[in-house]
Specification:
5 strands, 220 residues, alpha/beta, 9 helices
Length: 220
């Protein structure tokens, strides 16, 4: 289960699907073009490159400690402050710190929660979970020009931006709830079954000695 799906108080994330009227209202409320909120550089350099290239088009708000361009003394954001920036921004640069299959964090989920369109780079299999019509996916450095052009198009085309806001973030709206249900079923099966049926360890040779050691240690 990717960390992205349970980072928020360990509760399943249930995405909100917007009506046209609600999406239009959100679109009209946006104060900033894009935000960039990070505490350190990435291993791949894509988040820095997106910040640079998007900044050539329009200003990107960066209130975090890395590449800060906001006149704040602390040069960092609390979770609450970050959410305020996300909610006020049309787009969010949402790059995981590494690019690895299956590794996806809150970087893409937080913008969705605040109805800011993520500009994502990271997990090359992100489309296994997320609807690729709901965010801007920059797949590689070679793909960067296309991703930048898509952002510029969405920024200048209100109807296209609103349509993307209305998209469900997940391929399957019940995916996360099903993951939790499967996990619960798996755990209950362990403890509800007969103890003799639950045993998986062998009872001889080194395994037996190791188990005896653990029991002796626990009694001390």
């Amino acid at each position: 289960m990717p960390f992205a799906f349970y980072f928020d108080d360990n509760k399943p994330w249930i995405p909100e699907t917007l009506t046209y009227e609600k999406a239009k209202e959100i679109s009209e409320s946006k104060k900033f073009f894009c935000n960039f909120i990070y505490g350190h550089q990435s291993s791949h350099g894509m988040r820095e490159k997106l910040f640079e290239k998007l900044g050539e088009y329009k200003r990107v708000e960066s209130p975090g400690s890395f590449l800060n361009n906001i006149n704040n003394t602390r040069k960092r954001c609390s979770w609450a402050e970050k959410n305020e920036y996300l909610a006020a921004s049309k787009f969010t640069i949402a790059c995981d710190s590494i690019s690895y299959p299956g590794f996806v964090t809150e970087k893409i989920v937080q913008p969705f929660m605040q109805h800011s369109i993520p500009i994502y780079f990271g997990n090359p299999n992100i489309n296994d979970y997320f609807n690729i019509n709901s965010f801007v996916w920059c797949k590689s450095f070679d793909d960067l020009p296309r991703a930048l052009e898509e952002v510029r198009y969405l920024d200048s085309n209100d109807s296209a931006y609103i349509e993307m806001l209305m998209q469900s973030p997940l391929n399957d709206i019940n995916y996360i709830s099903n993951l939790y249900n499967d996990l619960e079923t798996f755990l209950f099966n362990i403890f509800d079954q007969n103890p003799d049926d639950a045993v998986r360890r062998i009872k001889y040779y080194c395994a037996e000695s190791h188990e005896k050691f653990l029991k002796d240690y626990a009694q001390k």
